[in-house]
Amino acid sequence: AAGVIQSPRHLIKEKRETATLKCYPIPRHDTVYWYQQGPGQDPQFLISFYEKMQSDKGSIPDRFSAQQFSDYHSELNMSSLELGDSALYFCASSLTGVRETQYFGPGTRLLVL
Amino acid sequence: TQLLEQSPQFLSIQEGENLTVYCNSSSVFSSLQWYRQEPGEGPVLLVTVVTGGEVKKLKRLTFQFGDARKDSSLHITAAQPGDTGLYLCAGPSGGYNKLIFGAGTRLAVHP
């Protein structure tokens, strides 16, 4: 069965640079979520999209923005990167009616130097 | 604010032993999910429990949802080294069901 695809899997950036993370949800899933997981921490919700519209927003810094495109893939754009942004970033997708059942991608490990 | 508390935080056992992991909240959840996560990988969904009192079995794993839908447990029978990992419980919050997670139970099963 198809799973959530994320790219890149690993990313190394310098402080103040920008980064773009991509997420391709499971086919026919209409809701995408982004989560951030710091070392030794549980995943924290950042933002979600339903049918290409922002549906919910969590503790996402103003330096970050995201969008969902017509093919349902989503991108998380991160600017003015800080050392504290180093973390695992996960995308998850779900289907209307069973949104609590979210399937996670393998994640992007971002390291900011 | 909805919170999920997991216990124990760490568990180190020998192969063949049984164990139970708990996930508790003071809030009612419409459902709870259990995930297993390997280092550097994404959480893998194990089960969703929806009905109060529900029991679901997945091979050697038994999941239970509390009658009041405020807590859940995961019981593993005859643990194997392959069960090693971080077990996370999660619950939906808000209209679009973003997940809030417990801090996780880190399980190590030694041969």
Descriptive key words:
heterodimer; A: 113 residues; mainly beta; 0% helix; globular; B: 111 residues; six-stranded mixed beta sheet; 11 strands
Polypeptide structure, described:
The complex is a heterodimer of chains A (113) and B (111). In chain A, strands 2, 4, 5, 6, 9, 10 and 11 form a seven-stranded mixed beta sheet that branches. Helix content of chain A is 0%, strand content 50%. In chain A, a hairpin with a 6-residue loop joins strand 4 (31-37) and strand 5. By secondary structure, chain A is mostly beta strands. Helix content of chain B is 0%, strand content 54%. In chain B, the strands form two sheets. In chain B, strands 2, 4, 5, 9, 10 and 11 form a six-stranded mixed beta sheet that branches. In chain B, strands 1-3-8-7-6 form a five-stranded antiparallel beta sheet, with no helix packed on it. In chain B, a hairpin with a 2-residue loop joins strand 6 (55-58) and strand 7 (61-65). Chain A binds chain B through residues 4, 31, 33, 35, 41-45, 48, 50, 55-56, 58, 88, 90, 92, 94, 99-107, 109, and chain B through 30-31, 33, 35, 40-45, 48, 88, 91-92, 94-104.
CA-based gyration radius of chain B: 13 Å
Number of strands of chain B: 11
Overall pLDDT score of chain B: 95
- Low-pLDDT parts of chain B are none
Which consecutive residue ranges of chain A, at least 5 long each, have pLDDT under 50? Answer: none
Which term fits the overall shape of chain B?
Answer: globular
Report, as a whole number of angstroms, the end-to-end distance of chain B: 41 Å
Q: Describe the main β-sheet of chain A briefly.
A: 7 strands, mixed
Q: In terms of structural class, how would the helical and strand content of chain B be classed?
A: mainly beta
Name the overall outline of chain A: globular
* Relative helix content of chain A: under 10%
Number of helices of chain B: 0
Order of helices and strands of chain B: EEEEEEEEEEE
Question: Over the alpha carbons, how many angstroms does the gyration radius of chain A reach?
Answer: 13 Å
Cα-to-Cα separation, first versus last residue of chain A: 37 Å
Beta-sheet strand percentage of chain A?
Answer: over 45%
| Residues in helix, % of chain B | under 10%
**In oligomeric terms, what are we looking at?**
heterodimer
β-strand number of chain A: 11
Describe the largest sheet of chain B.
6 strands, mixed
Task: Determine the mean pLDDT of chain A.
Answer: 94
